[in-house]
Amino acid sequence: QVQLVESGGDLVQPGGSLRLSCAASGFTFSGSSMSWYRQAPGKEREFVARITGLLKKTDYADSVKGRFTISRDNGKNMVYLQMNSLKPEDTAVYYCNADALGLTGQGTQVTVSS
Length: 114
Description:
globular, 0% helix, 11 strands, four-stranded antiparallel beta sheet, mainly beta
């Protein structure tokens, strides 16, 4: 079955950290570019970060550059998003995306609040 399953979302205080995980199955993961997107209440979904398949080149939205790190483990079919120095404006549902397939997971909620 082709699917993406995100996990790791939580309530965290401003300045805190979270690590999101995305488990992929049913397709050739190692060659697939993977991305994280997010959608805040009342806003459109926006790009957060991308990592290519074999070379693992990364790209980030300006709003998260220097705070978030995307990584992947091709042996485990996993992609991660390490989020540090979290801000209230990072509050959103975060989605994992397999770019070539146009496949998106169900999302995981991240709430940054004191």
